[in-house]
Amino acid sequence: MKTLTLILILINISISISRENPIFDRNLIPYSDGRLSIGGIGNFTHYFGEFDNNTGNSMAIETKYTMPYLPELSIGARYSQGNLSYLRLYKDNFTKYFEEQFPEEYFPDAINQRVERRTDISSFELMAYLNLFPRERLNYYAFAGFGIMRFQPQEITEAPQTDFGTNILWKDFGDEDQFKATLVGGIGIDYYLNRNFSIGLQSSFRYFKTDMLDAFEFKPNGEATATDHYFDYGIKLSYYMFESTDSDGDGLSNEEEIAYGTNPYKADSDDDGLSDYEEIYTHKTSPVLADSDGDGLSDFEELTLNINPNKSDTDEDGLTDFEEIRIYKTFAHLPDSDFDGLSDYSEIRKNTNPLNNDSDGDGIFDKEDECPNSYGIALFKGCPQNEPIIETKYIKDTLIIPMDTIYIVKEVSPNSKSDTIARQIIKPFGINFMKNSAEILIESELILDDIAKWIMTNQKQIEVHGHTDSDGDETFNLQLSFERALSVKEYLIAQGVDPKRVSARGFGEYNPIDIGESRKAKARNRRIEFVLTDEFTEK
Q1: 442-455 and 474-494 helices cross at what angle (nearest 10)?
Q2: What is the DSSP secondary-structure string of 212-230?
Q3: Can you give the residue ranges of every domain in the chain?
Q4: What pLDDT is attached to residue 165?
Q5: Rounded to 5 degrees, what are φ and ψ at 251?
């Protein structure tokens, strides 16, 4: 017994080490309350003997008691009743034994027939169970035991009898021969739907000494040389009765809650939207901390967003889940939200848009763009032109470079009214507002502070452009975009920017940079742009 207890303790230690959440050690739970369960099992049966088997069926009732303080061990009993199904048919190696036991007088043409027959069975067994994961929602177990079985082959019960009520063909098979001592063993799986119910699979094999399950003994040397057996497998549904109470009905006993440090009178101790049972056994999070990983997002919100509540940076891109969800609106489970080859963290550091693979809209992906925040051309690897382009002419293979054809191509926005106005578009990412409002979020003010300082270092005029996505009414979106641009303008002026240099315009949903309808596309279209021009016109 001491050796078995030591083995079980080692198994539990190895299971605990493999768990992701190190906050709780389930093996420290006293688990002092025993558990009594009653289960019903629906089985398929298969017979092993001289004949070919068909699939039979049986039903069983099982009761089991799990030991207090040592839930790895259980004892129980099972009663089952059903039948075995097989085909009675002649085989070449049966020779005379088949004809002797199935004489033509009573079984006409038996040698040439395939007849489906059955044997009714019932059994009662006492068993011991070894539970591998008794404290987990999914428990694997093995069992072994002994019992007694009664079997009644159809051939014998339907055989002709004498006037005295004795069997004509199986004279030596009396009522006492229908009972056999059995050894039984098997394996099973239980999945706990909640504290009181589980559903599972179970399979068992029985060993007993008889060759009469199919009413046929093969005995070439005067004694039966084959032994019949059968096994079954099926689905089990169990109901568990607990001695301990569960005051808050969360699936944890009061004693378990005390061991975990949770409130036994409150189903959700940390008020994060998840019951204590769900946190401990389903999600492996802390039931006493609303934010298990301390990243600023509750466990419930992280699970809703399909990110890891036990890891502050689910996608390991260098940004916490909170920063991705709340500040930058990127995907916390994807290290590269716009699939442009740059991680979200790298894009934030470079001040490019992690939700747009071409932040400046110049047709060159941010990864290949050496100036990802400035509208440029491929000739200069995505940067604005900073050197003259010389127009050349060829006349009869002679290169002529007229000096008066040297000119500088200035960056021109496609939205400008005149191609003679040089424009530079700045698209910083991270300027966000309250939903359906022009109120600037506090984290965005940090970005605007830097923009204000930068504006005051040059002498160009600034147009603040507001853009929305396509959700909602067009007229409302147009007004909202203007109000947001105006809010940014007023904030810049408050930081010291000359009011005469700043104007505001709203474009609503009419100037998207991504025509898709996905959340990602709409996130790209919600933006504030700063257009630097050489002229100033109040809009």
Answers
A1: 60
A2: -TTS----TTSS-----EE
A3: 25-242, 268-350, 411-533
A4: 65
A5: 95, -5
